[in-house]
From TrEMBL:
Identification of the protein by name: Amino acid ABC transporter ATP-binding protein
Protein species of origin: Cytobacillus mangrovibacter
UniProt xrefs under Gene3D superfamilies: P-loop containing nucleotide triphosphate hydrolases
Family designation: Belongs to the ABC transporter superfamily.
Xref: SMART domains: AAA
Length: 245
């Protein structure tokens, strides 16, 4: 049985003014796959993720999510964003809300969920990310790793079908990276469909089903992580890996 296609991007183009950032990008991600996206700063990785959950609107091409071709004219983009959760490098937690309130916020205000139900679910998510004891704490009292785990719980509270991670560990002190990657690995093992921009090659090797190298707005190489990282076919991939490893 072939797996359901969760994300299908075809000939995606996006420019900012004169800057052509995404150039005919094609990518297909099936259910429960984990894809790691690597590439130099400025190569268009964040823009690609943002076009997939419509934080940015593509100029041309197709974005199909869960079999549905999404267009800003015909779709409620808030619904698309609920289906496609995103975790950023900077956690963007609400500073004046407790950890629990941060996780409850979107289900209550966006999905109009009853407060008590949202609270029960938020507590379950905090347990899942190992932060049950922090529910009444404000974000300023958390470590970076804890903040990022709250951000993951907050994205999961919308019950997304897909999770996008944009360099989720690159703002963290090295000793805090592991706990966030462990949370992401758990999510992958539960079958979440994930696209992860990361230079944590160890994580990519261990968790990703395949990896993508992007350069100057194009996908240059796609492969199994073990192949792509150890034995890249393209000279540009090799040069990039030599610069980061
Ligand atoms: P990456 O995530 O790979 O570092 P980005 O997708 O963030 O790359 O950016 C690709 C290019 O697009 C960069 O040159 C960046 O400066 C530019 N860019 C990204 N977002 C915007 C924006 N909102 N307005 C103008 N330029 C942007
Ligand atoms: Mg980026």
């Amino acid at each position: 049985m072939s797996k359901t296609i969760m994300i299908n991007v075809e000939k995606l183009n996006k420019s900012f003014g004169n800057l052509h950032v995404l150039k005919d990008v094609d990518m297909t991600v099936k259910k429960s796959e984990v894809v790691c996206l690597i590439g130099a700063s400025g190569s268009g990785k964040s823009t690609l993720l943002r076009c997939i959950n419509f934080l940015e609107i593509k100029d041309s091409g197709l974005v199909v999510i869960g079999g549905e071709k999404i267009e800003k004219e015909t779709h409620d983009l808030n619904e698309v964003r609920a289906k496609v959760g995103m975790v950023f490098q900077h956690f963007n937690l609400f500073p004046h809300k407790t950890v629990l309130e941060n996780v409850m916020e979107a289900p209550i205000y966006v999905k109009k969920r009853p407060k008590e139900e949202a609270k029960v679910e938020a507590r379950a998510l905090l347990k899942k990310v190992g932060l049950s004891d922090k529910e009444n704490v404000y974000p300023s009292k958390l470590s970076g790793g804890q903040k990022q785990r709250v951000a993951i719980a907050r994205a999961l509270a919308m019950k997304p079908e897909i999770m996008l991670f944009d360099e989720p560990t690159s703002a963290l002190d090295p000793e805090l990276v592991g706990e966030v990657l462990a949370t992401m690995k758990e999510l992958a093992e539960e079958g979440m469909t994930m696209v992860v921009v990361t230079h944590e090659i160890g994580f990519a090797r261990e968790v990703a089903d395949w990896a993508v190298y992007m350069n100057e707005g194009r996908i240059v190489e796609v492969g199994h992580p073990k192949q792509l990282f150890s034995n890249p076919k393209e000279e540009r991939t090799k040069n990039f890996l030599d610069s980061v490893l």
